[in-house]
Write a structure and sequence with these properties.
The chain is of the alpha/beta class. The chain folds into 2 domains: about 190 residues, Rossmann fold (3-Layer(aba) Sandwich); about 160 residues, N-(1-d-carboxylethyl)-l-norvaline Dehydrogenase, domain 2 (Orthogonal Bundle). The chain has 14 helices and 12 strands. The protein has an 8-stranded mixed beta sheet with strand order 5-2-1-6-7-8-11-12, with helices on both faces. A 4-stranded mixed beta sheet has the order 4-3-10-9. The longest helix has 22 residues. The N and C termini lie far apart (about 55 Å).
Length: about 350
């Protein structure tokens, strides 16, 4: 039977993934808190465009504002709920959809950061799955408009990784992988925690830097001082992840140890890291986007900095691993977010090397 699917948080990732599910004929209900976006989806559906290689497409969709969710009580229950909100909205979004889950229904965290523990505390670990979306570069550019600053990754890069907190490869994991594979390449993992931390390192390196400088990824990477600061951020996050016992995966097609040593000043590792990052922006469209936190800052929204770089600092303290770069960035982003600073790269380029 075709499952009833809910996308809770129909922003960039939720809208992009859900649109592909609708295109494939699935029963999908989108839930969002932005009235103009909900009205646009109701009136005109979702429009999905790509930077290259993929033709634009439109899908008619069913969209609910969060105030309309109570109406689901009169309908057949939800089999799979994808929570695609910001991390700070995870708890209430999960609690909102929980009453409408089928008896064997479950929740999938399709978000940045590590939110499975929060979801599990509400619906139970047996009803909790997680999925990482790696280097997906999507943006909600306006009501009902989703843009991906790339084409499809396909075999060149696996975008989605799906797993359970307990590491078991179940029918649920298989089903979610099949659904996400409608969008782009997807695999199943028996080590969701390590996959999550690997993605966290990538987020830690780029998101906050874009947010507090106002720059796109390309411009951050092209700047020698910012690029080295990004390596230091990644190095600290990798060392903390290793301290937590995670076996980290490749990042930017580099072994984690290369990035870690580059951030620590190893000349050979730095040369490899620099070549890799500069090569990534030499290609057409490379880095021509803002990471999600950079988008949030432009739109005047709250950032997820405490769930990304702030988490590295928190775990580092527990392990007694120094994380000065991540601590400095967390503080700067919060000040920009509060309006105490204007976005500018000088916030980072003026930091001491010890940060």
């Amino acid at each position: 039977m075709t499952p009833r699917i809910a996308i809770v948080g129909a922003g960039a990732v939720g809208g992009y993934v859900g649109a592909h599910m609708v295109q494939a004929g699935h029963d999908v209900t989108f839930v969002d808190g932005w009235p103009e976006h909900v009205e646009a989806m109701r009136k005109d559906g979702l429009t999905v465009t790509h930077l290259k290689d993929v033709a634009p497409f439109d899908v008619r969709v069913r969209a609910l504002h969060i105030t309309d969710v109570q109406g689901l009580s009169k309908e057949a229950p939800i089999d799979i709920a994808f929570v695609c909100t910001k991390s700070y909205d995870t708890a209430w979004a999960t609690a909102m959809i929980q009453p409408y889950l089928a008896r064997d229904g479950f929740v999938v965290s399709l978000q940045n950061c590590i939110n499975e523990p929060v979801i599990a505390s509400i619906v139970g670990e047996d009803k909790t799955l997680g999925s990482i979306a790696s280097s997906i570069t999507v943006e909600l550019t306006g009501p009902g408009q989703v843009f991906r600053a790339a084409g499809k990754s396909g075999e060149s890069h696996t975008v989605f990784r799906v797993g359970q907190p307990d590491g078991k490869i179940t029918d649920r994991v298989k089903r979610v992988r099949e659904l996400l594979a409608l969008t782009d390449s997807a695999l199943m993992t028996n080590d969701l925690a390590a996959e999550r931390w690997t993605k966290l390192v990538l987020n830690v390196m780029g998101n906050g830097v874009s947010a507090c400088t106002g720059l796109k990824s390309r411009d951050c990477i092209a700047d020698d001082r910012l690029r080295q600061f990004m390596a230091r951020l990644g190095s600290e996050a990798i060392r903390v992840g290793q301290g937590l016992g995670h076996k980290l995966e490749e990042m930017f097609h580099l072994e984690p140890e290369i990035i870690a040593r580059a951030g620590e000043g190893d000349a050979k590792a730095k040369r490899i890291y620099d070549e890799n990052r500069l090569d990534s922006i030499s290609k057409p469209g490379g880095g021509e986007h803002r990471p999600s936190m950079g988008q949030d800052m432009v739109k005047g929204r709250r950032t997820e900095i405490e769930f990304m770089n702030g988490l590295v600092v928190e775990k580092g303290k527990q392990l007694r691993i120094a994380t000065p770069a991540n601590a400095a960035l967390t503080d700067i982003v919060k000040k920009v977010e509060r309006g105490e600073f204007k976005p500018d790269k000088s916030h980072l380029t003026s930091l001491r090397e010890s940060c």
